[in-house]
Amino acid sequence: MTRPAPVRLRRWLAIAGVALVLGVFPLVVDGGSWLNVAILVLLYAGLAQAWNILGGFAGQVSLGNAAFFGIGAYTSTVLLDRWQISPWLGMVAGAAVAALFAVVVFFPFFRLGGHYFAIATIALGEILLIVFTNWEFVRGARGITIDFIRGPDRRPASSWWMLQFNDTRAPYYYVVLGLAVLAVAAAVVIDRAKLGYYLRAIKNDQQAARSLGVPVLRYKLIAVAISAALTALFGTFYAQYLLFIDPDTTMRLELSVLIALVAILGGVGTVVGPLLGAVVLIPLAEVSRSQLGGSGNTLDLVLYGALIVLISVFQPNGLVALSTRFRRRRASGPPPDNTVQRGEAPLIGLPGAGD
User: Fold this and answer.
1) Burial label, 214 (beta-carbon count in 10 A; 0-12, 13-18, 19+)
2) Where are the domains of the chain?
3) Which of 43, 250, 286, 311 has a 20 to 30 A CA-CA distance from 334?
4) What pTM, to 2 d.p., does this model score?
């Protein structure tokens, strides 16, 4: 259905306004902490969008996406550390390895249903965590520290080709912004393509979709391959941003759960939902860590866990559904006024009325 011209115009103006704000944000923000929060918001928005392709569109709730994240981080970092291959090339290699790994491993997983599938993905993440912790080729639990490139004067230098920046975090912001835009663009294309319709049919009723001739297993494998590849891209970025990786920071279960929670909070199965979830959840977690003392791990889990519970109880479809309901209520205007006007009497309820 074609939207009215004013609606399309408002939508494009809103997109242009958001693009402008995102583009100039590093130029006007004061302080590295705010820029760091913005980078984390974009990082988790992209990760949640990648998860949404599998968990939202196809309805396959995975709690093991940290495995793809870690594969991307380790692939690019090992290539850089051992053979000085650019992280950009390592990023592509990591995405390819993660996609292939996802297709091979999830082929039998997709024969499981419901909570059995979710438990299998948790087991996958934990197995990879143990393997990488004890794998000496990737330095096991010690992790890998990425050495900063140095200029002729032996001081740390910045390089776009090596994805390392010493003077400011702004380049990292623009890199993760580009990756987030890529993830959103992929979700939009899938949502409007035949693949998106097939995935939604699979989510609603696999048996009905199969009876109509939809190759269910094939399209679920396509969805997990795309999700894994996009997640691995962000894994490479994260490794270059921290200049250090180890199994605990890239493959832990808490990371998989947080990625899923961001999408669930915003609204699964929608393009905007993961973005809204990241904008709300990630700053809340970062502020609680910095303002409530200590590492804040317990308190921030309590805070955004309570937020998830509230959304689940009062608006199970997430923040997107809440905002949609608010817009519809505003568009419909105030409810009709049924109070008695001055000088008038109702026909029922007063003595003598209707006599």
Assistant:
1) middle
2) 30-250
3) 311
4) 0.87
